[in-house]
Structures are given as structure tokens and as C-alpha cells.
Amino acid sequence: MQIAILLYPGFTALDAIGPFETLSNLPGAETVFVAEQPGALRNDNGTLSMLADASLAEVARPDIVVVPGSPNALAALETGAVSAWLRDVDRTTTWTTSVCTGSLILAASGLLKGRRATSHWLYLEELASYGVESTGERVVFDDKYVTAAGVSSGIDMGLALAGRIAGDRVAQSIQLLIEYDPQPPYDAGSPEKAPADIVEEWRGRKVETGSLFA
Amino acid sequence: MQIAILLYPGFTALDAIGPFETLSNLPGAETVFVAEQPGALRNDNGTLSMLADASLAEVARPDIVVVPGSPNALAALETGAVSAWLRDVDRTTTWTTSVCTGSLILAASGLLKGRRATSHWLYLEELASYGVESTGERVVFDDKYVTAAGVSSGIDMGLALAGRIAGDRVAQSIQLLIEYDPQPPYDAGSPEKAPADIVEEWRGRKVETGSLFA
Lengths: 214, 214
Description:
The structure is a homodimer. Chain A is α/β, with parallel strands linked by helices. Chain A has one domain: Rossmann fold (3-Layer(aba) Sandwich), CATH 3.40.50. Chain A is 31% helix and 20% strand. Chain A has a 7-stranded mixed β-sheet with strand order 5-2-1-6-7-11-10, with helices on both faces. In chain A, helix 1 runs parallel beside helix 5 and helix 5 (153-166) runs antiparallel to helix 6 (168-177). The radius of gyration of chain A is 16 Å and the shape is globular. The N and C termini of chain A lie far apart (42 Å). At the A-B interface, helix 1, strand 2, strand 4, helix 5 and helix 6 of A face helix 1, strand 2, strand 4, helix 5 and helix 6 of B.
């Protein structure tokens, strides 16, 4: 079972690492980070680099594809190579997945038309503009397409997918070993729960690259 | 405000990325990944590489230190360089922090003696063996020493620390932007909550490197 995690300049690190940490230890899993060119890719704020060990061409038939998001996700599609690769590998994947605005990358590549899917709360309207039934749910399964909401939701998606693939007992073991017993010190993790003025502030200015508070 | 995140061969990726994603966007933050030698470091199961942009010697006075864990954390101390660096920078840090078995690295470097601290649930006894008041709490503040439990708890630690550093409003903004509204599909994230037989199975075999289910 090959799991391909897509990297591109400006990706959000936790978008990739949530699914990675929950899926890469599944029995029989072989995980590979893939990008247009192998080598180092910087994250959205430029302070982290991860390596892509393989080029898109080297990963032709992954069983699972994971597409992380970015504040500037559509930049990943500039050369056309990522969209072409996604459309190609999607013909044979068992699961095609995304976290955060990774769903915009899937949708802009033509893979989510008419399907239910989610994204970061700030981008749900943009997702709908691709003919997607956009929902604010945290993890959405529609046939083999699995999408997760903003950044940290990839952990929940990874565990749900681990359960579908390997059964509840394995998924529970993974949850126990990563000690995923969340105790956030605030209750501000969704636009419904955060203070209204904070939500309005962020709705007013789309986050692009760089520091959130710069 | 310089934030130094330590990398070493075999680190657990989410241990580093939880604090990274919650702290690196703080106002005025400059984040640097640091290791004995700059360059690529492989994670615990060998399928992910992150880059250290700086050597230990190049990061002499960080304000915040983050030490991620590993199933084989003490291997990070083999040459003595990491312990020497931690003891040195700790003299001037504002916060010295760890996630998961990163607390074993701090403790083995002599920095947690007599303090309250936490670790991954499988390693609480080992932590106590260093003269630490070991507790199973998820995030523990003792003066400037902040320790978090297993792997995913670094997200909770990062948010708590963001609040101390920059105030509740900034921390809530970060939580909202990473959409940290956890909805795990199982309730197995701690030894108290997971099925007892799964807990016993993992207590019986300490996880070293490689795939959990190999």
C-alpha cells in the first residue's frame, strides 16, 4: 500500500504531518513524499523545509494520495504538472484525500465535481465555485474522496481512514500511541466557537503567505 | 523572539510540528530548526526528512527551545553535543520545552531534576528515574519548563504557550486558523480511555523505531 503525500512550495506543514503520522505506520504502508522535483520544499511561512524523495513521474500508481493545503494553494498548479499527475493517479487510487485548501487543488484539477467535500472554513465558498457540494464538516467521505477541514483536521481524517483501511483496533492503537486525547486550552477552533470579533477579523483578510500576524 | 526546534535522527515528526504550527506565526517570532549538523534528518520510521537550517553552534541564545521526542530519544545524546547545547542555552531561555519523550532528553541533560514534568504515557516511569516528579497530565508548566505528553499533545502545549506569550486573543486566533476543533473518530487517546487490552498490548512492548505494526 503506497501512500503518496504531495509537497509543493508554500505547503502548510501540519496539513501534511497529521495524515502522515496517523497513516504511515499502518501495516504494509510505504509512504513517499512527492513533488514536481525531488528535493527541499519550504512551507508557507518559509521557516521549515521538508524533502520530497521522489518526483511525480516516479510515483505513478499510489494507492493513497494526500494533498495538503496552503494559504496560496492554487500556486501549486501553475505549471500544470500537479493537476495532470493528480488526474492520472486518481484513476487507480483507492483513496484520494486532502487537508485544508488541498481540496481546492483537487477541485481545480477536476476531481471533486458534484461531490461533497470540505476545506478550511475561510475557503468553503471558493470550493463551492468548482461545482462542489461544499460543507463545513470536519471530515467528509464521498466514495473514495476524503477531504478534511483546516490544518489540524488531517489528524482526525487520518484516524478515520486508518479505521476504514485496517479496522478500529489498529486505528485505536494509533490514537493511543500518538496520545491524541485533545485538551485545547481554548475553545476557539471553529468559526462557530471562536469569539465573533476574531472570526470577523479573519474573514476580512484572507491569509496569504508569511506570518499570520505580520 | 527566536524559537529553536531541535532535530536529531529518529525524531517523531508530529512532536516537532505541533509546537511549530502553533508558535512559528507568533508576532515577532523567528523559528529555526537546529541539529548537530545542518542538513536532512530522517524521522522515526525513516520515510520523512526535514532540514535543519542551522547547527547547534549557530543558535547560541534562543528564547524558546522545543525538544521533540522519539521512540529512541536518548540516542540523540550519544555524542554529548545535544546535552551540552541544551544546558548552555537553557541558562538564558525564556521557555525550555519538550513534547513526548523529549522530556527524557531534557531530564537526561540534567534540566528537570526536582521539577514536575510529563512525557508519553509509556515513558512516565523512565522520566521519574531522573528525579523528576512525573505526571500523566497533558501539558505541565513548572516555572519556565513546559512539557507535553505524547506526540499530538504538542499542539495543546503550543497553544497554551502562545497564550502566555502573546495573550488569549492571539492564541485563539491561531486555534481558529489551524481549525483545531478536534473530533477524533475514536475515544482511545489515553491509557485511561483506550480499550484495556490495547493498552496492555503496548505496555508489553516498548515501541522502538520503525513501523508500529511491523
